[in-house]
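TEACHING EXERCISE
Course module: macromolecular assemblies
Task: Read the component lines below, then compare them to the predicted structure of the full complex.
Student: A.B.
Group: 4
Components provided:
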Amino acid sequence: MQSSLIGKIQKANMYAREPERVTFSEFTTKFRGEHDSYQVSFRDDKWSCDCHFFPTSGICSHVMALQKLIGPMLPTEARYWPVSESVPVSSGT
Ligand SMILES: [Zn+2]
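Instructor-supplied answer key:
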């Protein structure tokens, strides 16, 4: 094997232990839930999931699981519960 390629492999092994080097800008996943599979995606700084819970809440267990799985590789604003207009904020009303 070329010695230059060996160097690349060593560097790749080092990089692979540092997930914070990578930031996903957009992606689509197939998420196998307990009863069904769902398409979970992140695009234009927004999460989406085609499960029945997501449209009413703007969040669901599938998105939350992905946030835990690949948290260090998500843009900062995508790592947490999305505070968006679709999420009811309890303000004492
Ligand atoms: Zn979902």
